[in-house]
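Whether sequence alone determines local backbone shape is best considered at the level of individual chains. In the encoding step, the backbone of a single protein was reduced to a row of integers, each denoting a local shape. For completeness, the protein is quoted in full, as a sequence line and a line of structure tokens.
***
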Amino acid sequence: MLRVLKGDKRRLLLVALLITMLTSAVNQTVVATAMPRIVADLGGLNLYSWLATAYILTSSVSVPLAGKFSDLWGRRPFFLAGVTLFLLGSWASGLAHNMHWLITARAVQGLGGGMLMAMNTITIGDLFPPAQRGRWQGIMMSVFALATLLGPTLGGWITDHWSWRWVFYVSTPFGFLSLVLLFYALPPYRAAHKPRLNYWSPVLLTVSLVGLLLALTFAQQDLSWTTHRVLLGFAVAGVSGILFALADSRAEEPLLPPWLWRNNIFVVSTITLFLVTLGMFAITLYLPMYLQIVTGVSATYSGTLLTPMMLSVMIAAVVSGQLISRLRHYKIFAVSGLAVATAGMFYLGLLPVDATHAMVVAGMVISGTGMGIAMPTFTVAVQNTVRRTELGTVTAASQLFRSIGGVFGSALTGNIVLTDLSHRLAGLLPPGAPAKVDPGQVLGRLMQMPGDPRLYLVKHALSLSITHGFFIGAILLTGGLLASLFLEDRELKARWDDQPAME
């Protein structure tokens, strides 16, 4: 059991957790800056979005599988496998000579990245009793925020001074170091009995998740929820999801056990996180565009303006994590944090067209502070309700629905903003022009003609569309805030032995 680790092994394992969290989180942001150079070198602009989609697909699938199976066979093999797959995918990505190769390599990298995401959170739960986890979950979230802050700048510097291939290679030494530390510090696990492997549940869950995520990706690309490939994806997801539920309910070792849905804290946390992640994607996707096109700053400076939001997330996460561990209660932080984040989103949704940089930064800081306060609480709350042997299952299930919320948020926000912008831009075109326009093409042409009098109208249209997206995000966050009011506030356990057993 990991909680009996003491001395050097415990410290080295914590170092390995921080390295793997930072490396996998940086990878998700560092690649974005190099994307234009990659496409220019390899071609395949029509496959551009699949570089991100492939990673999201495979990482979302691997999270629940790694969580459940690590409860059965121990953390060690899945943590080591996650690092190994991540390194192989990174190296293969750097060696890519066409887009299909790179997309396949990113899928392998996503398998490893999803396993690392799950195992980091689960291992913190193994190492510390619930009353101490808030502190460490806050630290881990601050590391993620730091990676989000450093990633784009680091990716741009590496691409400009070395090569886009080194964006993938740079994680190799850190990955090997974490592999050595994990191999030394993580103890082997010997199960009391050999579990019977449940084959159908993983297969059906994988098919259902792939169908759902593909449908959402296509919806974002097509700006429609009713195209044939979107409807086919939803149909595959629905049928295989029903079959998964039937198979899993009869399995000896279900991936999503029935007791999860009888656990009020898990259900409320899952609904809240889904809605919050759904709403926050408006900021993630469109704040950089708002800053660059509406307020007229450069890409580099827009990254600088995002720094206060990331710093507010980091500071708030660390402080709230410390307070949760001291007070041993979490609901006040969940509710108050989401209230602050929701207020920040409404503020962004009401920004005028001539908003100053200070006005935008104020909204970002308010939202970031709220998210930093709230987000560490839900993992701590959920882990506090289960036995140690169920940590992997409950943690991975929570992360799975958060990931699905992110993909839903990307598709929903993209559809709302771009469809609204398309209608607004159509009114600026001369008579006889197509009623439906590609917003990207119109924006690209006008941005190349800074003296064009229509440019202000385009910026006005873009401002209204993006702030509309922020306002929708605020409504979704309000839903998450209302859901959090039903979160049961159990005292965090100070010792392992007094954790409740699930029936």
Observations:
- Residues 89 and 105 are 5 Å apart (CA to CA).
- The mean pLDDT is 79.
- The two ends are 22 Å apart (CA to CA).
- The chain is about 75% helix and 0% strand.
